[in-house]
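On clarity, I found the account of how folds are encoded harder to follow than it need be. For illustration, here is how one protein appears when written out as sequence plus structure tokens:

:::
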Amino acid sequence: MSGTIVADLPVALRNAWALSFGDGIEQRVPTPSTTIYDEPHRHLSRYDRSTPATGNPVLLVPPLAVTISCYDLRPGQSLAEYLLDIGKQAYVIDYGEIGYEDRNLGFEEWTHDIIPAAVRRVSAEHGGAPVDLIGWSFGGTISILTAAAHADLPIASVTAIGTPFDQRKNPGVALPRAIARYTGGREVTEPTKWFGGIPKQAVRAGFRVQAFSREITRPVFIARNLANTEALARMESIDRFIGEMPGYPGRLYRQSYRQFIQRNELAKGTVNLRRNCVIELSKLTCRVLLIGSRSDILAPAAAVAAGVDVLTGAVEARYEEVGGSHLGMVAGPEARTATWPLIEDFLEA
């Protein structure tokens, strides 16, 4: 036992220095990629591969208020890397920074412009081949709405990870839904009008509050794992991910609250983004895979699974359950053996 402590001491000291005074345990090294086009809130990149790809190209659709690193957290925790390893050609659309000047952007900017343009370009890059969309959290919502709104788009399938449909089955929003019956939701919608949205500082703070147990036990975790470089690198990658979160546009946040939480329109099958922009989910016709987790407090498994009953026009709509937190499902160390193989099987079916 004493020999192990002595052997681990240099590693522990080195890690302690890196965390306290150095450059960190592990520097971020993104999977290499090439820019296809770069426009405001729409930077399309293709992940580089050295051999020809197989099957349909894949477009990774991130949610708002996070960076594209959700799909490329670190080596071994990268869905983008995994897709390349199984022979797929993966792309990702980056929305960049969101500020006060973007306060009037709503879901329709993504469902009727940003994502359709990316799908068409990716398809064109592969001779008109249909595209498989993969979206985590609101990225899944955006992908589902886009596929439902545009029957003409070359979309082969949508995989939505941790994407809730029925908010009645989400205990985390029960209180806001109850309050909104009396207030009309003004306690949420009015502040976002004043501030132009949810600033990035508030988004980061909110994510830490939701992971309060992780934050409060962080010193103990570091002390117990000071000689475990891999565990500290995983912790550091999540800290970096949270620290880079951008904000929400005001209009989009109000839509997500009113349409999805307050009115539960995703569960009802009809989403009213604007008076002349109504999306019927029954018009989605491609294959759909929904992935949820009972450990996800932001998008509980039951709320995700409800989508199967809503997407009545899909040629196939299936639900699969894995373990892990909201982020862990897509980027946790267990995702490689749980979530990602499900996606691989679905894409190859």
About this structure: The longest helix spans residues 2-20.
